[in-house]
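Recall the central idea of this unit: under ordinary conditions, the amino acid sequence of a chain determines the structure it adopts. In this exercise we apply that idea directly, starting from the sequence alone.
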Amino acid sequence: MSDRTRLTVSYAERDREAFEAEFGVCDEEDISDAGVVEATYDEVDGGGYDELRNLAAQGIPFFGHHGDGGEYSAAYVAGYRRKYDEAVGGIGVWTLCLDFDLDTGKVSGLADARKFRRHWRGAIAAVTRRVEKHKGKAATCSGMPRRN
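Accordingly, the structure predicted from this sequence is:
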């Protein structure tokens, strides 16, 4: 058994069965009128990495975050277009991880940060579309962390 942490994730209500198959019943839940679920799971192994990758591979869009574990940092997570992505960060802000090579003077990591931001925004839009398609009413999802 690996480290356990708290995971909060948002997804379309129609995907509840898939999330329950991976995580079981959530510990806390809030459902918007339009049908966006914000579910919190306590004591999730490894930040839910394996389960979230499985859900993303099934084409289920989601976005959220998990806390620190003993072997990993807190992170924002997103499933979009059958891919899973994550970015290190605490609640409310993700961290831009850049590497500076002293020998070449090159900075790396910015492209990864931009890719995650596109993935995160895509996941929010996909959840919104999925809810609107299923419920037939306009939905809004918020979830963009603030910039520092």
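Residues 144-148 have pLDDT under 50 and may be disordered.
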